# Entry
Amino acid sequence: MKLWSAVLIFATGLGIGLSAQTLMPELLIPYLPQSLQVHQVTVDGQVIRKHREEAKLLLTVSTPQGALLATFTDHVPEIDLLVEEGDTVTLGLSRYEPFVTNPRVKGVMKPDVAPQTMSGSPASHETLDPPSESSTPNASS
# Structure
């Protein structure tokens, strides 16, 4: 009787561990040793179309491997605010597939814009002329 209960407990723990690794990899990856971690492929591409529905965001990304449709159901408002059409995104995938759900967004590069100063206005390279001596009051008079 004790042997069967030990086997049952071991099998239950093994089942929970394996199902958690497949269902929640983003939570478990930091705690797994390197030998057990799934290696991710990074894919760079340009967002050519963006479509927002109530609970999901669809991005069509043009990559060197071909087109990719990324469907996001997590963090939809944040990703919608961050990513625009024309941006270059870096996605982390377990392998390249044309249809992916909730890929990891590793980076977003905006198209080139004019450099900004700390005040938010475009940088200018104007120099100010020093005041001329004729405009300063004469202290000896």
In short: The longest helix spans residues 2-23. The helical segments are 2-23, 25-28, 76-82. The two ends are 114 Å apart (CA to CA).
